[in-house]
């Protein structure tokens, strides 16, 4: 995955999001910071080093780069999450939205979505975001 999404260098928040998405324990994260960057916190890293840290976190998790549609789904999901109840703020809930929107009950991950299913999921998430946080114009 290119951490330089949309021409921006990885922020501290992007590092923490990557850690959370990778389900990386805090101890493993701190060990990675110490071993590869000799730092105790990502706030001491340059933007370029944070890019490398995000890539290292994804490698740690054995993740493959996310497609543009997956990144769009995740962006919409993070827009929607604050409006959901805590029990709804799970990947399972997001996958349920994808299953319902696409009509495919066998979806186990966003990487498994076809282009058509991803499009339907994006549109469903957009509608859901508009329901809970409409644009005032």
SSE layout and pairings?
Elements: H1 12-21, H2 26-37, H3 47-60, H4 68-80, H5 91-102, H6 115-132
Helix pairs in contact: 1-3, 2-3, 4-6, 5-6
Spell out the key features of this protein.
6 helices; disordered N terminus
Explained architecture:
This protein is mostly helical and 137 residues long. It is 58% helix and 0% strand. It contains 6 helices and no strands. Helix 1 runs parallel beside helix 3. The longest helix has 18 residues.
Can you describe this structure in just a few lines?
This protein has 137 residues and is an all-alpha fold.
- CA radius of gyration is 16 Å
Tell how many strands the DSSP assignment holds: 0
- What percent of the residues sit in helical stretches (DSSP H or I)? 55-70%
- Uncertain segments of ≥5 residues (pLDDT<50)? 1-7
Summed up, the helix count is 6
The best one-word shape is elongated
**Overall pLDDT, averaged?**
86
| Secondary-structure element string | HHHHHH
| Structural category | mainly alpha
Quaternary structure state of the chains depicted? single chain
Beta-strand portion reads under 5%
Task: State the major sheet.
Answer: none
Q: Termini, distance in Å?
A: 36 Å
């Amino acid at each position: 995955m290119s951490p330089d999404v949309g021409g921006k260098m990885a922020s501290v928040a992007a590092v923490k999001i990557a850690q959370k998405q990778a389900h990386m324990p805090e101890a493993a994260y701190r060990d990675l910071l110490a071993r590869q960057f000799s730092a105790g916190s990502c706030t001491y890293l340059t933007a370029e080093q944070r890019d490398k840290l995000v890539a290292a976190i994804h490698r740690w998790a054995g993740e493959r780069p996310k497609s543009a549609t997956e990144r769009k789904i995740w962006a919409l999901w993070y827009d929607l999450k604050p409006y959901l109840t805590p029990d709804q703020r799970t990947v399972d809930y997001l996958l349920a939205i994808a299953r319902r929107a696409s009509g495919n009950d066998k979806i186990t991950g966003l990487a498994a979505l076809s282009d058509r299913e991803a499009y339907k999921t994006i549109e469903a998430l957009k509608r859901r975001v508009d329901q809970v946080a409409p644009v005032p114009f």
